[in-house]
Sequence to fold (70 residues):
Amino acid sequence: MKTPPEMMGRVQAINGFFIGSSNELGAFESGVAARLFGLVPSVLFGACITLVVVALTAWRVPELRKLSRL
Fold:
């Protein structure tokens, strides 16, 4: 949200790279977790970890909640 205009292309390229690779890595990780722990436990564990990360981020970086929406 605060990227200088001259850096916008580079930021978009990196963003696209990480979004594209995260989908593939996430699918692999989900498959491995389901194989090792079972489907339901891996989904519940992933959901709990996601909520913990969101809560910790909201607690440690309150500025994110104050950013204006576009």
